[in-house]
Amino acid sequence: MNDNFTNEFFGIGIQNGKTPENLGVLWRSAQNLGASFIFTIGNRYAKQASDTHSAVKSMPYFHYEDFDDFFKNLPIGARLVGVELDENAEDLETFHHPRRCVYLLGAEDSGLSKKAIEKCHFLVKFKSPKSLNVSVAGSIVLYDRGINKPRS
């Protein structure tokens, strides 16, 4: 067995994204920061000028009609990590990223659905009094994953 093989993967996506421009920026960050796949739940991706690297053509992209459709297709063994300003969420600064996970963000104005929050294995938040732009929040999570490597 190859000890260097970690079987690590992660994906990132947005539930009911508010603006399509945010998708393009997040997809570009996902591609640059090593995501395995990208996805949307609810609102569908449309080609955006902000996706200057055409990430949607360079990595697997999945669309799910609703949260139930997404959750039943969560990769086996993957942990669902919700990014949400919630009193039960762990600070990103102390969070240990799972080796195999899917990061889920909600729209800036509505956040994650109640069902999504209940189904998440982990919730993380930023030390910020207000919510951040979804593409900024997702990019920060991916960057943090890169510098704070997941545990075995």
β-sheet strand percentage: 15-25%
- The Cα radius of gyration reads 14 Å
H and E order: EHEHEHEEEHEH
Q: Helicity range of the residues?
A: 25-40%
Task: Pick out the low-confidence regions.
Answer: 1-5
Any descriptors?
alpha/beta, Alpha/beta knot, 5 helices, globular, disordered N terminus
Can you offer a commentary on this structure?
The chain has a single domain, classed as Alpha/beta knot (3-Layer(aba) Sandwich). Helices cover 28% and strands 22% of the residues. It has helices spanning 20-32, 55-58, 67-72, 114-119, 134-147, and strands at residues 9-15, 37-41, 61-64, 79-83, 90-91, 100-106, 122-125. Strands 3-2-1-6-4-7-5 form a 7-stranded parallel β-sheet. α1 packs parallel to α5 (134-147). It is globular, with a radius of gyration of 14 Å. The model is unreliable at 1-5 (pLDDT under 50).
